Amino acid sequence: MSVGLIAWRQGVLVPASQQSQKISEFSFLEKRDVVLITALLPALLPFKKWPLEDTALMCQDLDRTISFMTKSTKSEIRQLFDLFHLKPFLWWHGARSLDQISAVDMSKLITSMTSSRLSDFKMAAAALNEIICGVYYANPQTDRELSYAPPLELV
Amino acid sequence: MIIDGSKAFSNQTLEVDYCIIGSGSGGAFAASLLSEKGYKVAIIEEGPYQKTSDFKDMRESRAYPELYQELASRKTKNKAVNILQGRNVGGGTTVNWTTCFRTPENTLKYWRDNFDLPFTSDSLAHHFEVCEKRFSISPWEIPPNTNNSLLAKGMSALGREYGHISRNVKDCYNLGYCGVGCPTGAKQSQLVTSIPRALALGAILAPRWRAYRLAHQFGKVSRLEAYNLPGLGNQTGEIKLTIKAREFIVAAGAIGTPALLMRSRISDASGLLGKRTFIHPTVISGAIFEDEVQPYLGAPQSIYSDHYLWQDYGFKLEVPPVHPVLLASTLMQKGDRHRELMLKLNNLQVCIALQRDGFFKDSVGGNVELNSHGEPVLDYEWSEAMGEGFKQALLAMAELQFAAGAKEVLPIHASASTCTSIDQLSRMLDGLSMQALAVKVVAAHVMGGACFGTSEKQSVTNLDGRVWRYHNLSVMDGSLFPTSIAANPMLSILGHTHRIYS
Ligand SMILES: Cc1cc2nc3c(=O)[nH]c(=O)nc-3n(C[C@H](O)[C@H](O)[C@H](O)COP(=O)(O)OP(=O)(O)OC[C@H]3O[C@@H](n4cnc5c(N)ncnc54)[C@H](O)[C@@H]3O)c2cc1C
Ligand code: SF4
Question: Which residues partner with A13 through β-bridges?
Fold first, then answer.
């Protein structure tokens, strides 16, 4: 899938080629972060397919969630995402680039971060899992998958 | 009168008798008591003023960004502890789980012996009685939900004691959504009790303003400077609210209060400001049952056990309400394994063990620090012995869960796997590290950091919460406690608020 296509504009997917480096509709995510998220989703949420539209929606929800965070948390998330944009970091973990990494290799990368002796890597892996899973299950559409009885409607 | 910072467009100045920062257990209750005495009170709160009608959707996705500090994902400096704190008008009481305990006598005795504090169960009884009446606190008579009744079943099968919890509710529908804001108004939070009372008596409520600094000279605070928070986010704007008052009461919670005092460079001879911050570090055990548990339905907490509370590094046993986002962000497994556990939500029973911190030499609590943006961050680490306490707690929870009929038990830990017997689990636990980021630790009870006491060398405030050497500056929230409470702290905070301001 060409991740270059992802941008969510007023409910419509727009080719990213029409966008500048920073996708204007996102307040935090940059184009390269979208590439990262596209690579992360099949590894952290492997039980479903990730078509373009669903990836775009996740990016939108993630961006909105991050926009509520404090300045310092935002800058920590920036550092976290930027870690994956460092080529040597990927190479060190046996991956060539984010837009070519398979779900299996991304899972391996995250597992190796989790079991790393460096607490920064452990922290980073835990944070990614928490934020991606948290945002996914915050969507009411996932209630049925879990047989979570949606809240009653109060009159 | 309400002055909403999210809609403010010009700088403003107010002049009142009492300026109260924070509208949680301590701040809102103090505001209503002082308003009843005829004082002009202003309450400054960084969270939004949302009402019962705003909670009708009962959704985590709305509640966490709007009602919690840092979207319910506040963390300690080393990211090893998730801290839940309210950030809204009503503070923690708007989102808490309605469990009410008086301060245990053992805690008060420890304070008498080690901190020279004069409080006894008897001397505080009157204040607790008044609060119990005022906030409709009484034993919960309705049968516990399955999540809670399995805690009772397990403890009773082991021949160990457990008890029933009192709750601050009136005509409760037993829904189970207390953590996302009670949609019926049954929970007698500060949002539906003290805040409307204070407003009716002429108090000014200023939501969506973040108190930044207290200006002071020669031991007297002259004004508070606060900045607006546009929209729902966490970033302050540039519009300023200045409040001049005769008295200032800081009630911004046990991370927010030390932070404001530190940003304001309040002098502190004890060196304890922001130190000894306790959290009841809490470990978690999940169990899968054959029958449905639906751990999100029904009054969240109605059974507890203090069986292990007063042993070394003791812990209180309770259960949490388990909704999808909370579960998803608590599980440490990844990928397919994470999904597998999520799909078992309906059959999941969860126990939590809240460690009593602050009672041992190596249980010194955490330190509140300010980062380069002036935002507070809690640096909290645990000793090896406290880690051993976590292990004992995980074992005790698994034991009771198996005794209650669990098919599988999973201690929430990065390297744990599900076990089908207590022997298997015990062997696995032996090999698990209890270090930061390995074991999952969460906290919803933040206490200390501006402790009260009898001498300015050993405490930040006097027994009435007045900051030493300041004529008109006080603290009134969970920061005042010199250790953790060893029980859910809301009623302890309310009781001291009544003791000081009634
Ligand atoms: C999910 C959850 C469940 C809980 N369950 C229970 C329970 O069942 N029983 C129990 O006893 N306890 C429970 N607690 C804990 C209890 O609610 C808190 O301990 C208690 O409310 C703390 O009171 P407080 O006055 O210290 O501060 P808080 O209630 O935290 O109030 C402080 C307020 O100050 C505001 N503030 C902070 N900084 C600033 C600033 N700079 N400017 C303006 N405003 C500021 C915050 O937004 C907040 O609203 C729970 C807490 C949570 C989060
Ligand atoms: S259980 Fe009771 S107090 Fe809690 S949300 Fe439901 S009605 Fe409100």
Answer: A8
**Is the CB of residue B144 below 6 angstroms from any atom belonging to ligand 1?**
no
CATH classification for the domain delimited by B145-178+282-356+383-435, as one of 2.40.128, 3.40.50, 3.30.410, 1.10.238? 3.30.410
Nearest to B238 by CA among B210, B261, B257, B258: B210
Q: What is the pTM of this model?
A: 0.95
Q: Does the beta-carbon distance from B65 to A129 stay under 8 Å?
A: no
Q: Which among B229, B147, B187 has a CA at the least distance from the CA of B52?
A: B187
Q: What are phi and psi of B384, to 5 degrees?
A: -60, -40
Q: B346 C-alpha to center of ligand 1: Å?
A: 29
**Residues lower than pLDDT 50 in chain A:** 1-22, 155
**Residues B3-47: tens digit of each pLDDT:** 999 999 999 999 999 999 999 999 999 999 999 999 999 999 999
Q: How many whole angstroms separate alpha carbon B470 and alpha carbon B351?
A: 44
Asked if the C-beta of B342 comes within 8 angstroms of chain A's C-beta atoms, the answer is yes
- Quick check: B79 and A126 CB within 8 A? yes
| Both structure tokens of B265 | 């460079």
Beta strand spans in B280-397 (E)? 282-288, 303-304, 315-318, 348-355, 367-370, 376-379
Provide the CA A144 distance to its chain's centre, in angstroms.
22
Q: What is the pLDDT of residue A153?
A: 66
Distance (angstroms) between ligand 1 centre and the Cα of B252 equals 8
Q: Which helix (H) or strand (E) holds B278?
A: strand B277-278
Identify residue B143 by its one-letter amino acid code.
P
User: Distance between CA atoms of B197 and B204, rounded to whole angstroms?
Assistant: 12
What stretch of H or E contains B17?
strand B12-21
What ipTM was estimated for this complex?
A: 0.91
The two beta strands, B315-318 and B303-304, are unpaired
Q: B329, A133: Cβ pair inside 8 Å?
A: yes
The residue among A137, A142, A144 with the most chain B CBs within 10 A of its CB, best to mutate, is A137
Is A73–B70 a contact, with Cβ atoms under 8 angstroms apart? yes
Residue bearing the CA closest to ligand 1, atom 1: B96
CA distances from B344 to A137, A146, A149, B154 (A): 14, 8, 13, 20
Residues of chain A contacting B437 with CB distance shorter than 8 Å: 119, 122-123, 126
Domain boundaries, chain B: 5-135+188-273+450-501, 145-178+282-356+383-435
Distance B167 CA to ligand 1 centre (A): 17
B471 has a pLDDT exceeding 60: yes
Per DSSP, the three-state class of B58 is coil
Which residue, among B76, B146, B334, B348, would best test binding to A if mutated, counting the most A CBs under 10 Å from its CB? B334
Segment holding B111, helix H or strand E: helix B105-115
As its CATH architecture, domain B5-135+188-273+450-501 has 3-Layer(bba) Sandwich (3.50)
Is A155 at the interface with chain B, CB within 8 A?
no
